[in-house]
Amino acid sequence: MKALIYDGPETIGYRDVPDPVPAPGEHLIRVSAVGICGSDMHAYLGHDDRRPAPLILGHEAAGVITGGPRDGERVTINPLVSCGVCPACKEGRENLCPQRQIISMPPREGAFAQFLTMPESNLIAVPEGVSLLKAALAEPLAVSWHAARLGLDALHPSMEKRALIIGGGTIGLAAALALKAMGCEAVSVLEPNPARRDYLSRKCGIDAIEQAEGAVPLVVDAVGYAATRATASVLASPGGVIVHIGLGEDTGGLDIRRMTLQEITFIGTYTYTNADFRDTANAMFDGRLGPLDWVESRDLSDGAAAFQDIRAGRVAAPKTVLIPKD
Fold this sequence. Notes:
The chain is of the alpha/beta class. It has ten helices and 18 strands. The chain folds into two domains: 2-137 and 292-323, Medium-chain alcohol dehydrogenases, catalytic domain (Quinone Oxidoreductase, Chain A, domain 1), CATH 3.90.180; 141-268, NAD(P)-binding Rossmann-like Domain (Rossmann fold, 3-Layer(aba) Sandwich). α4 (138-154) crosses α9.
């Protein structure tokens, strides 16, 4: 099969690799669409030791089961594989499983390829009428669905359901859509890039702003740099909540003194539970997350150029999805 291979910092090759072979309990999937994630970009830049070269990246995927009793079934893929037997898994917190694996990290190759193998339990059927390109958005949407749920659950009942998201990329946009779907009264996205602000406002119907004014009960940091954590620390209302999704930088930024004196809750959030992924897929399929038409698609063979364009800031769309061809 053909695959897009990360060979080292800012170096990606498109070439032949052996076809994957399903293990017992797994299905072979012909990949129809796979999104480029921020974590793929971190790896591409050489900033992620968890993803050493050479490696097939990509974990936001949908496709068609090939062979077996579910042959021909259209599915979206939960890329997080958990053990199913540890206390975290038994409690429905599979994202905290100490044995968790995710495709695009060893030992599991990713989805920037024509074929992929996944366990039965990680596949969700996609209804007719929902494109597999849109179905590939389930993974990033689930990340933000999980974060939005945690943030709203932590918000004191006396506080307004009003939120500010820092960062207008895929995760930030998805957080805004999830919060709206969960009944948040007002949602804004703080985004410095004017082209992206225009895209979010015009194409996605999102209140995209250049500068925030006043305190906000719920702040979602979808970037994760010291500067954005500092912004979150300033903007969170007394008694409010900061939800931190981004993985841009490891340290710095938080105003611990203000957070302590103003009793601001800080929540770090990682991926999603199986229930979150199913709930997100259902919300996508029934239209609660909108038309999901904020995607740019390219051939998988054009993946190296897509990474370069994202790196250079030449892509206005929040999500680039790669399409493997036969």
